[in-house]
Specification:
Blueprint lengths: L2 H12 L4 H11 L5 H21 L12 H6 L2 H13 L14 H21 L26 H9 L7 H12 L6 H24 L3 H5 L6 E2 L4 E5 L5 E5 L5 H14 L11 E4 L2 E4 L2 H15 L5 H16 L2 H8 L8 H7 L2 H7 L2
Antiparallel strand pairs: 1-2, 2-3, 4-5
Amino acid sequence: MRRELLLEKIDQLKQIMPWYVLDYYQSKLSVPYSLITLYEYLKEYQRFFTWLQDTGLYQGQTLADLPLEILEQLSKKDLEAFILYLRERPLLNSNTTKQGVSQTTINRTLSALSSLYAYLTEEVENETGEPYFYRNVMKKVATKKKRETLAARAENIKQKLFLGEETQGFLDHIDHVYPTQLSNRALSSFNKNKERDLALVALLLASGIRLSEAIHLDVRDLNLNMMVVEVIRKGGKRDVVPIASFAKPYLHQYLAIRDQRYQVDKTQLALFLTLYRGKANRMEASSVEKMVAKYSESFKIRVTPHKLRHTLATRLYDATKSQVLVSHQLGHASTQVTDLYTHIVDDEQKNALDQL
């Protein structure tokens, strides 16, 4: 979604939100949360507040008038009823007979509500320095996680990673093979953004930074002499992330054509740009997702940018056998999240079975 359209949709939602949600929005902008995350959260609040109206838990006429007291007094049973509504309600798509939304969507909804409740009960300060209220019902609501072992998850993810020589093979495919599959018109469009696309894919594969971190990069955040990039991690923490050397030529080639190709003026600081109506704009997450999807599908299997992050993490663990180094590279606070990569590259169990 283009930034202008995204901001327009956010403004539409802000107009119907209660004042404390607007305070929450302003607070999270300073963290900063990405605009797409805040947009998705606002949509979840609209859905939840509308449900409160429909069930009679809130009897006001407009969502903007929903008082804090309603949220404070909601019970665990009320939230469980909302979850049941999500799980059983008919989908808007009339072409399917499937009922309810997925567990992943329900977890995202609960995550949005948990964030709002944490703000209202812990983070915000009123005129006396106290939160708006103290009772956080979301702490009593459990989310259901997908049941699978790390080994099962690792085996599933492994099929979608570009490990070993496939990392360079993927970049070579974009550079040399993919354009041979295109019509003259599509080839012209590809050539306009070839250097940018290769630089962005190479950076994701060589650093393991998140998509949201990549699209928010400014030119000054990239240091090719030191081969590091400065990013804003989750929680607003700034981090300096090393970049593998194989990405350097791709980044150099893109920077060499960036200003002229995208008609950059002095006010445009974004590293990765798109040209829209003759004006340079920061790339949007959805554009990068579509880009990675089409290139990866042509190469091997359709993947998301997050799988490129998994690729870097798996290759780094395979080379170092250090979960600490992998967690530092990915910006994780602990090594617990990196347990997954030990299962992807650990062949000792299979080798032992072969010897039985």
